[in-house]
TrEMBL record, chains A, B:
UniProt entry tagged with the keyword Signal: yes
GO cellular component: extracellular region; lysosome
Listed name of the protein: Carboxypeptidase Q
Assembly description: Homodimer. The monomeric form is inactive while the homodimer is active.
InterPro entries: CPQ, Peptidase_M28
GO biological process terms on file: proteolysis
Keyword Magnesium: no
Localization (cell): Endoplasmic reticulum; Golgi apparatus; Lysosome; Secreted
Organism: Cerina litoralis
Signal peptide: 1-17
Domain annotation Peptidase M28: ranges: 259-446
Keywords: Carboxypeptidase, Endoplasmic reticulum, Glycoprotein, Golgi apparatus, Hydrolase, Lysosome, Metal-binding, Metalloprotease, Protease, Secreted, Signal, Zinc, Zymogen
GO molecular function (one): metallodipeptidase activity
Length: 458, 458
């Protein structure tokens, strides 16, 4: 078996790995697929820790676990960067039903949106008004909305090939629905889950009241896609149905937390810093496996793979596990602030926060010269079926680092299944495929290697 | 990944529909993603019919169901093509254990390989010899193998990015292991499942005794990957363990069955036939959802999408659901024989038999001129993240049609998860993602449209 494996290895080397760069990429992919640690780490984070909402015990456990694991990798330095984070708690399980006539009720799966206020202890019960966007509120006006619960039911557009595009075209209902509906005297908001599939999982996510005075804030919840369909059909048959929901979530005082950081110091240009990261916090309903446990373990794996393959970086490579991406972005903001205060020179940052699915490539937020440089490497990625190198969004946590010189990049995995699980109880370890996760880590490590070796075009 | 920052998402995949071809592709993808039927069909085939081994009641039900569904599409002609198929039945559930000392036994999940003979009614019990390939048998020789059970334990190579490559480097153990081991007097064969993941599912699949006389045929079973690992470790500690297994499978007489065929007659060149297909039979352990229910419903969907989008084909487009790919290829062989006998001119054939995962492109078995023509269309597929257009394998069922003129093509979906489910009880409907399935159907329909419109270069 050993001989055969060696033979296969040599054959593959002959086929794919001719230049030193091609050889290094092959070493990285081979190590990721045969000696990877990312999947084991994610198993622990998902199954032993679970959902890691900012300020929770689980988030703190994840800080401690990942710090300890980074320390075991023999990096040059591992530390915690303190950051104050908002603390929102869900409270007792939410409850909702609609009533077609007195006593005739049908339960519907809901969950409070992150940041929402509670309902009164007895819940909210009112007639429903179904709308499909924020602009529709204005046309209805206070007369039709006062005292009502607004039901936002614009679905994600299945025609979008890249599902994040469908998400970004829909998510204003969730983020701003309550603030806008409150202006017209609505008493509550329920929002169709950001999910392309019809199922029974409500999907939570951040919402904001903007400058709505505290006394005017109304509770907001997500409803499953099946629930939304049922409710919409029922409303067409009987516009007078009442909807009732109860939730006991709370916004508490900010609490201390941490970004977890580890680095390999550069051997030639230690002052030039390259960041690779994901966010360690997650929503509370699932295990935060795809969002974004996957990105965290892939980022840790990048440094491990570079060490494992014997590559000594010229520049300082830093893994950052950001806290509080989901409901505050305090970790990303803090990291950029401190980098600026210390006058650190960040030349590159890569985030993985689109799930641990089969990687397709990267989107780059950088100068044309650096994009051209990346395009020059495309051929090397072809054996790994990596083909997407386009301008685009990088990642929420690294965006605060943006300036004219830096290369920001986002890993782009296959997006078809992501919103099936995103922010829901369905975001669990079993949704992650080991090889897909490992291929993502190897793809990230390869890009980091190339930008480290050749530098960022200034 | 969250929300507010996504307002900054730079949309890189703009689907500009400018040329008539680009417009037609957009119509096809939109229809597949918003009005698709493939997922509903697959639900029925998987959950209402289930595993469809050639000659089974389920296979016949699938013939009737798909014929009926094709008839509802308003095709020009739908018919059944009779073909005799082998009938192998699994019998009562298999059973296996290893014994470290008398009475100390550990059960291990196994399943008979398709085509295998039964063990004697009391089972086979013998010492084990672990090997990693067929060539190793020769070096061991009769002395070390006579009276033993041979345990083939060469794993799939995780370093292969395309998992089908790892499969084809391993599968000789399954197909020929028993015939080879019998030459040296072995009394049974167990083979590590063709699965890149460590889990408890045994994966069946076809095996052949070649010209081994009937009296010398020995039973062959697959063992789960976890079982194989456990057995291998145990053998290292205690080479004298005994392995016992019992199976009651049988090869019966051939029985009649059918290929299911439907066509839209060409408006300009009706004599030129283009085939799109998958195989309707499956293994019996799961539901045959990914292998190859997915390919069947995608192929039916191709014709439906062409009609739905108002496209009138110049050539005759034929969907063929082949019977008996898994253990005989009688359907594919029969179809090609009749085509030849009738002097039909087949110019193109496309098969989907690699799962209904996110499509990445096609492999082509055709002339350089036709590959060049396909390359010329690559740009049109970019908005749909279809990037792979290479020479390669098409599909088992359409290969008998091969000649110098025909274009043979195989859909190439993402392959990372395929062998997790392939030929096992795990190949069920819930493993299929609706959008991934639909994108595959649309990608196939787009290629068929282009080859119909522009013709095959002769």
């Amino acid at each position: 078996m050993k001989n055969l494996a060696l033979l296969l290895f040599l054959i593959t080397i002959q086929v794919f790995a001719q230049t030193p760069d091609e050889k290094q990429l092959k070493l990285i992919y081979d190590a990721a697929l045969t000696q990877g640690k990312a999947y084991d780490w994610l198993n622990y984070i998902s199954n032993q820790i679970g959902g890691r909402l900012s300020g929770s015990v689980q988030a703190q456990k994840a800080v401690e676990y990942t710090k300890q694991q980074m320390e075991s990798l023999g990096l040059d330095k591992v530390w915690l960067q303190p950051v104050m984070v908002p603390k929102w708690v869900r409270g007792t399980p939410e409850f909702a039903y609609f009533e077609t006539s007195p006593g005739m009720t049908t339960n519907i799966p809901i969950c409070a949106l992150g940041g929402s206020v509670a309902t009164p202890p007895g819940g909210v019960k009112a007639n429903l008004v179904e709308v499909h966007g924020l602009e529709e509120l204005k046309s209805l006006g206070r007369k039709k909305l006062e005292g009502k619960i607004v039901f936002f039911n614009r679905p994600m557009d299945p025609k979008k090939i890249e599902t994040f595009e469908a998400y970004s075209n829909c998510v204003d209902q969730r983020t701003s629905g309550a603030a806008e509906a409150a202006k017209y005297g609505a008493v509550g908001v329920i929002v169709r889950s950001m999910n392309l599939r019809l199922d029974d999982f409500p999907h939570t996510g951040a919402m904001s009241y903007g400058d709505t005075p505290i006394k005017d804030r109304i509770p907001a919840a997500a409803i499953s896609t099946n629930g939304a369909e049922l409710l919409s059909i029922t409303l067409k048959l009987n516009p007078d149905i009442k909807f009732a929901f109860r939730q006991s979530c709370q916004n508490l005082e900010d609490v201390p937390s941490f970004n977890v950081i580890g680095e390999i110091r550069g051997s030639v240009h230690p002052e030039e810093i390259m960041v690779v990261g994901g966010h360690l916090d997650s929503w509370d309903l699932g295990q935060g496996a795809q969002d974004d446990g996957a990105g965290c373990v892939q980022s840790m794996e990048v440094l491990r793979l570079l060490k494992k393959t014997g590559y000594r970086p010229k520049r300082t490579i830093r893994v950052v596990l950001f806290m509080n991406e989901e409901n505050g972005l305090r970790g990303g903001t803090k990291y950029a602030e401190e980098a600026k205060a210390k006058n650190e020179k960040h030349v590159f940052a890569l985030e993985s926060d689109s799930g641990g699915y089969t990687p397709r490539g990267f989107s780059f937020d950088c100068s044309d010269a650096n994009l051209a440089q990346a395009h020059g490497w495309k051929k090397m990625f072809e054996p790994y079926l990596i083909h997407f190198f386009e301008k685009g969004y990088s990642g929420a946590d690294i965006l605060p680092l943006k300036n004219d010189q830096i290369v920001l990049a986002g890993l782009r995995p296959d997006s078809q299944r992501y919103f099936d699980v995103h922010h829901s109880a369905n975001d669990t370890f079993d949704q992650v495929n080991k090889r897909e996760l490992e291929l993502g880590a190897a793809t990230m490590a390869s890009l980091v290697y190339l930008f480290d070796k050749y530098g960022v075009v200034q």
